[in-house]
Amino acid sequence: MSEPAVDAEEVRHVADLARVTLSEDEVDAFAEQFSEVLGYFEALEDVPEVESEPELVNVMREDEVEESLSQEAALANADESEDGFFKGPRVS
Amino acid sequence: MSHNAFITETDIAGDESGVLDGRTVAVKDNISTEGVRTTCGSEMLSDYVPPYDATVVSRLKDAGATIVGKANMDEFGMGTTTETSAFGPVTNPVDDDRVPGGSSGGSAAAVAAGDADLALGSDTGGSIRCPAAYCGVVGIKPTYGLVSRYGLVAYANSLEQIGPIANTVADAAELLSVIAGPDENDGTTRKAGADADYASAATGDVEGLTIGVPTQLVGGRERAGDDPAEGGETRAGADEAVVEVFEDALDEYRDAGAEIVEVSLPSVEYAVAAYYVIAMSEASSNLARFDGVRYGTSGGYDGNWNEAFSDAREEGFGDEVKRRVLLGTYALSAGYHDKYYKQAQEARAWVKQDFDEAFETVDVLASPTMPMLPPELGESLDDPLQMYLADANTVPVNLANLPAISVPAGESDGLPVGLQLVGPAFGEETIIRAGSLLA
C-alpha cells in the first residue's frame, strides 16, 4: 500500500481546526512528513479485535466547596485582566 | 551547573526533616513549583509561574529534600533527545557531542553530572527510561496510578507518570517511596503500594527469578524501515552493539541464579503506531488550553479570538509540538477517527493482554531500554518517523500502564547501554529487586 498523500490544503485545514497558524514553508514540510507518519500508522489496520472489559470505578466525590486559589492567584499569569476577569480577544 | 541541564536554578529547602534531608533534587520543568517558573521547555510558558506545588513537590519538601533546579526537557515532553527545548539542547555528560535522551534529558544529565543527587522526570512513552539509559543512570517509570499527576502539565494523561532518576536503584527506590501513594487531587491514583518501602527491595538478590526476553524487542535491526503494509516488520530491532551488552547482562543474571526464558509479544510490533496516535490525540486536546488568555504568551495580536489564538500558538509552539498537535487533530477528525484512534485503542488492549499472559509464566521482562546508542546532537531531528521508532521498546509499557526500570547494563564504545526490566502492575518491588543486581 502506498503512503497516503497529504496535500497542502489538508494540512492547512487541520492547522485551522487545531488553531495553529502555519507559514508556507511549514505547510510544505508537514505535508511530506504527515504522509510518511500516517502511512506508518496504517499498520494499525492489521490489529485484531481484542475482548477487553476495562475495570471502571466512579471516583467522583460529592460536590462540596473547598479551599481553592484566590482570584488574584488565578489571574496572576494572564496577560490581561479587568475587574477580576480574564480579558481575551473578541469572539467574532 | 553544566550541560544546560537546568532551565531555572533554585534553592528551595524542605520545610521539614525527613528521609531526604540533605539530598538535592532536580525537578523536570513540567512539574509545577509554587513561585518558581515552570516552562515545559516552551516559549509558550516562558513566563508562567504556578500558584501551587505539584503533589510530588509537596512530598519532596515534606521529606526534607532541597530542590536545586527545574530541569531542561523536550518541549511539553515531546521528543527523545531533549533537542526540542526552547531553551536549547542538553548535552550528555558522558559525551558532550551526544544527546542525553529525552524528554527528561535535563533530569538525567543533572544526576549523571553530579549537579543533583536525585531527579524527578515524567514518562509518557519512555521519557524517564530513555535518558536514564543514555546517561548511564537509573530511572523508574511507575505503574499508572501509583504517583499523583496533580501539578504535572498534561501531555497525554492516560499514559504519563512522574518517576525518579538516581545513580543507584536503591536511591531511585527511596525517592519513589517518598512520591508514591494516593492523592485526593488526582482521581487516577490508586491505593495499591501506598505504604511500600521500595528501597529495602533493592537487595541485589535475583536467585530464583524468572526473566522473560521478548524476542520482538531484541532481534536484528536489518529489518528497519521495511514497509509493514507490504508484509515487512513494523519496527526495528536493536543495534548489534546494544544487543551484545544486553546479552552480557543476561549472563550476569544467569550467574546470579535467575532463569532466562524467551517469550513472544506479537502485539508490540504495533505499539509505536498505537502509542503515537493516542499520545498525539491526547496532546491535541490538552494543549488547546494554551490560548494566551489565561496563561501562555498572547503576543498581543489583533483580530478575533480564533485569529489571535492561532497566531499566539504559531509563535509559542516549536516544530515538534505543532507536528503532534496537528497529527492528533488529524487522527481525531471526522472520517479518520475509526481508522486511527479506534484502531490504536484496540492495539492498546491487545498489548495489555499480551503482557498479562507473559506475566503468568515470568516475574519480569527484560530488553534493551533503547535500541541504539545515544545519537550525536542534531542527528535525528529532521526525520520525525525515525525519532518515533526509537521508542519501540519503551512505549508498550505505557500502553499497558505497567512499571519499568532502566538500569545501566554496561558500555559500548564508552557509551552507556540501558537494560529495561518490566513488571506486572504494582510490581515495583520486583523490578527494583531485579534491577539492583546491576546498580
From TrEMBL, chain A:
Keywords: ATP-binding, Ligase, Nucleotide-binding, Protein biosynthesis. SUPFAM superfamilies: Glu-tRNAGln amidotransferase C subunit. GO terms for molecular function: ATP binding; glutaminyl-tRNA synthase (glutamine-hydrolyzing) activity. Its EC number is 6.3.5.-. Pfam families: GatC (PF02686). It catalyses: L-glutamyl-tRNA(Gln) + L-glutamine + ATP + H2O = L-glutaminyl-tRNA(Gln) + L-glutamate + ADP + phosphate + H(+); L-aspartyl-tRNA(Asn) + L-glutamine + ATP + H2O = L-asparaginyl-tRNA(Asn) + L-glutamate + ADP + phosphate + 2 H(+). Belongs to the GatC family. This is Aspartyl/glutamyl-tRNA(Asn/Gln) amidotransferase subunit C. It comes from Salarchaeum japonicum. The gene is gatC.
Automatic annotation (TrEMBL), chain B:
GO terms for cellular component: glutamyl-tRNA(Gln) amidotransferase complex. Residues 80-107 are annotated as: Disordered. One of its GO terms (molecular function) is ATP binding. It is an enzyme of class 6 (ligase). The keyword Zinc does not apply. The active site is at K28 (charge relay system), S103 (charge relay system), S127 (acyl-ester intermediate). GO terms for biological process: translation. The keyword Amino-acid biosynthesis does not apply. Its EC number is 6.3.5.7. SUPFAM superfamilies: Amidase signature (AS) enzymes. Keywords: ATP-binding, Ligase, Nucleotide-binding, Protein biosynthesis. InterPro entries: Amidase, Amidase_CS, Amidase_dom, AS_sf, GatA. It catalyses: L-glutamyl-tRNA(Gln) + L-glutamine + ATP + H2O = L-glutaminyl-tRNA(Gln) + L-glutamate + ADP + phosphate + H(+). Residues 10-431 form the Amidase domain. Heterotrimer of A, B and C subunits. Allows the formation of correctly charged Gln-tRNA(Gln) through the transamidation of misacylated Glu-tRNA(Gln) in organisms which lack glutaminyl-tRNA synthetase. The reaction takes place in the presence of glutamine and ATP through an activated gamma-phospho-Glu-tRNA(Gln). Belongs to the amidase family. GatA subfamily. This is Glutamyl-tRNA(Gln) amidotransferase subunit A. It comes from Salarchaeum japonicum. The gene is gatA.
